[in-house]
Design brief:
- The chain is an alpha+beta fold and 398 residues long.
- It folds into two domains: 168 residues, Creatine Amidinohydrolase, Chain A, domain 1; 222 residues, Creatine Amidinohydrolase (Alpha-Beta Complex).
- The chain contains eleven helices and 17 strands.
- Helix 10 packs across helix 11.
- The protein is globular and about 70 Å long.
- It starts with a helix and ends with a strand.
Length: 398
């Protein structure tokens, strides 16, 4: 299975929940393998739900808008009932020569079986599953208050318990397929940075550098969602867009703190390149780099986020950069760029076996720009595994 069935069952039993309803696009993707188009076309009002019962935790029931219901054919998990809503026309020119996929889509597109809206379809699905009178977990972050109120009116004997945090805890422990997806996303960024290193020249603008990066990401069938790339001292304002007026010159750093998505899974990788030669003030990077490497090796399951923060900061300080300050040194990553745990000074989040953490030691200084290293690491009792493939030290290019 693509999702962690065993952990989901454990959590459902622990909280005495008979079913879980997911409603955010990330959670729907987690349980089905497809990202509901309606949540992109209409992010605030679009409705799509999955329902998983404790009785059949490896079967995913779906409520979907009929216009985009063909997405069911892309599901990578066992799909049970599919309840549609709305109106959409797929005409029946020749029903004699339909492929198996077309036959299935034809049945899913039956307008006579479609409900007027998403909440009515969800009510019908829950009644079909005979869930009235049971405690039901509801992914409250993706359902409107008025729709949740409607559910409570229709199922007066049921208790609807907020469970977004429960699903988030399940998602934090990655399956093998998820780890492979995260590793691929990380490689996409590494390859794109290599493409920049091979194609830059003196006088190239930030915009042109970012375009090289974005083209490489697209060629790898990924999306450059947040390619934060800045040159030299301008990286102090790294969230700003790239400028055509900022040109690369000898001695400049090129800073990458890039978030991309491949197949729904994020990578958040940071690197710096130095053009033609390395200035002496960049030597601070050495402690940041070695401290991050030490942290990725020494993080253990059972540690709290604040303990990982202290471990990382102490390593950087001991390695020759005692002035270094930071508000966090990383976070979990998966279907969202920031997942549990957060590696911050007051974080009680627990690090667990099977989590993938983005561990980073960024430094920003006026007049210098940014020195930054960030990599994803899979946490294991047997020893952690860094999912990037290449050395993250500063590279002199050009």
């Amino acid at each position: 299975m693509f999702y962690n069935v065993e952990l989901l069952v454990e959590k459902m039993k622990s909280y005495e929940i008979s079913a879980v309803i997911s409603s955010t696009k990330e959670n729907i993707r987690y349980f089905t393998g497809f990202e509901p188009v309606i949540k992109t076309l209409n992010p605030y009002n679009g409705q799509c739900y999955t329902v998983i019962t404790l009785e059949q935790p490896d079967v995913v029931h779906v409520v979907h808008s009929i216009g985009e219901v063909d997405q069911i054919l892309d599901a990578r998990t066992n799909i049970g009932h599919v309840f549609t809503y709305g109106t959409f026309y797929r005409e029946h020119g020749n029903l004699k020569n339909l492929s198996p996929e077309e036959e299935r889509l034809n049945k899913l597109t039956d307008i006579s079986e479609s409900y007027s809206n998403g909440q009515e379809a969800l009510v019908a699905l829950l009644k079909t599953l005979k869930l009235d009178g049971f405690r039901i977990g509801i992914d409250e972050e993706g359902i409107k208050t008025i729709h949740l109120s409607h559910l409570r009116e229709q199922f007066g004997k049921s208790e609807f318990k907020p469970c977004s945090d429960i699903i988030r805890a399940v998602r934090a422990i990655k399956t093998e397929q998820e780890i492979n997806s995260l590793a691929y996303s990380a490689r996409c960024i590494e390859n794109a940075i290599d493409a920049v290193a091979e194609n830059i020249y003196e006088g190239i603008s930030e915009v042109e550098i970012a375009n090289i990066f974005k083209v490489s990401i697209a060629q790898q069938d990924a999306l450059p969602v947040l390619p934060m790339i800045k040159v030299g001292r301008h990286a102090i304002g790294g969230q700003r867009r790239q400028s055509q007026d900022i040109k690369l010159k000898a001695g400049d750093l090129i800073w990458f703190d890039c978030d991309i998505v491949s197949n729904g899974y994020w990578a958040d990788i940071a690197r710096v390149l130095s053009f033609k030669h390395l200035k002496s003030e960049y030597k601070k990077f050495d402690a940041l780099y070695k401290g991050q490497l030490f942290s990725m090796k020494e993080i253990k399951p059972g540690m709290k986020g604040k303990e990982v923060f202290d471990l990382t900061m102490n390593a950087v300080h001991d390695l020759g950069f005692p002035e270094y300050r930071r508000h966090h040194v990383g976070h979990g990553i998966g279907l969202e760029p920031y997942e549990l745990p957060i590696l911050a000074p007051n974080s009680e989040d627990l690090v667990q076996e099977g989590m993938v953490l983005s561990v980073e030691t960024p430094y920003y200084e006026f007049g210098l720009g940014a020195l930054h290293i960030e990599d994803p690491v899979l946490i294991s009792e047997k020893g952690n595994t860094v999912l990037t493939q290449k050395n993250g030290n500063i590279k002199i290019v050009g």
